[in-house]
């Protein structure tokens, strides 16, 4: 419903040339009629109060939400910093957003899976809404978003849509979206924790390690590519180390020889795919690893 409302808003904004206050009035009206009112009927209660209760249900949840807000503020500061700097950000510099995403998703999966599931869907809608503001240059955010996009865009953002943040969010959350009952905290949930980490491991840990270590220490390049063998090795080792840490803290149990081999093969295979893929790797890698782990 959320994305459907944004699609309607985009169609109205383009066809009726909505700008300034008319755009925001239309946004509120469409949000009410396509999202808030239907959700109110479905839940038989106020969805806003329902979300508020979910955010404040106990002290532990409030601590996680506060921690997520701090991570969001750090991301905003990074964007503002790069906006003021001359020149475009490098691939390694953009990986700070991968690290911040890891910082959000790992505690979310461990302690507030349902809230993470809900928040990821809402954030996807916000990303599309911000893209609409940027492309239509809707004040007061349109120009600010365009300047930030110019400073941080990479080769994947060749069209009108800034696909990199959308791909990053989707890659991290895709295993959570497609896994059956991902937040079911039963006895088997710890075993299911590993497939849910597919996006975090392949994109958050592996892709980041490959980019940072490859750009600093890489000397042996793949044919017709700027990616290096050293980056791939760093990707594999960092992912294996992450799985080992999860085992040590008790979030992956029953780690027998078969599962060790399967995890290792999945990590090596996805790392090789990352080395040979230039486009949409943030979407491909989590899906490949999830299929191999689930």
TrEMBL record:
Similarity annotation: Belongs to the polyprenol kinase family.
Topology with respect to the bilayer: Multi-pass membrane protein
Matches recorded under InterPro entries: Polypren_kinase
The protein's Enzyme Commission number: 2.7.1.108
Molecular function in Gene Ontology: dolichol kinase activity
Entries under PANTHER family matching the protein: DOLICHOL KINASE, TRANSMEMBRANE PROTEIN 15-RELATED
Major subcellular site: endoplasmic reticulum
Protein name: dolichol kinase
Tree of life domain: Eukaryota
Membrane-spanning residues: 23-43, 64-82, 115-137, 158-178, 190-213, 233-253, 259-277
UniProt keywords, alphabetically: Endoplasmic reticulum, Kinase, Membrane, Transferase, Transmembrane, Transmembrane helix
Organism: Cryptolaemus montrouzieri
GO CC annotation: endoplasmic reticulum membrane
Compartments where found: Endoplasmic reticulum membrane
């Amino acid at each position: 419903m959320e994305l459907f409302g944004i699609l309607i808003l985009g169609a109205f904004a383009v066809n009726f040339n909505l700008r300034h206050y008319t755009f925001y009035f239309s946004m509120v009206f469409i949000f009410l009629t396509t999202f808030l009112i239907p959700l109110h009927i479905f839940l038989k209660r106020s969805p806003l109060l329902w979300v508020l209760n979910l955010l404040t249900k106990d002290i532990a949840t409030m601590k996680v939400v506060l921690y997520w807000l701090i991570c969001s503020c750090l991301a905003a500061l990074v964007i503002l910093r790069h906006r003021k700097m001359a020149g475009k950000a490098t691939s390694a510099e953009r990986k700070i957003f991968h690290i911040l995403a890891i910082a959000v998703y790992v505690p979310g999966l461990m302690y507030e899976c349902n809230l993470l599931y809900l928040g990821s869907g809402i954030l996807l809608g916000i990303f599309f809404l911000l893209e609409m503001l940027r492309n239509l240059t809707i004040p007061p955010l349109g120009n600010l978003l365009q300047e930030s996009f110019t400073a941080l865009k990479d080769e994947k953002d060749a069209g009108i849509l800034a696909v990199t943040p959308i791909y990053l969010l989707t890659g991290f959350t895709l295993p959570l979206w497609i896994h059956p009952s991902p937040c079911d905290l039963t006895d088997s949930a710890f075993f299911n924790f590993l497939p849910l980490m597919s996006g975090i491991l392949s994109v958050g840990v592996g892709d980041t390690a490959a980019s940072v270590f490859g750009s600093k220490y890489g000397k042996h390049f793949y044919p017709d590519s700027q990616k290096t063998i050293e980056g791939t090795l760093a990707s594999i080792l960092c992912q294996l180390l992450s799985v080992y840490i999860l085992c040590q803290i008790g979030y992956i149990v029953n780690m027998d020889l078969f599962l060790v081999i399967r995890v290792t093969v999945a990590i090596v295979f996805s790392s090789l795919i990352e080395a040979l893929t230039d486009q949409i790797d943030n979407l491909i890698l989590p899906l490949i690893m999830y299929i191999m782990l689930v």
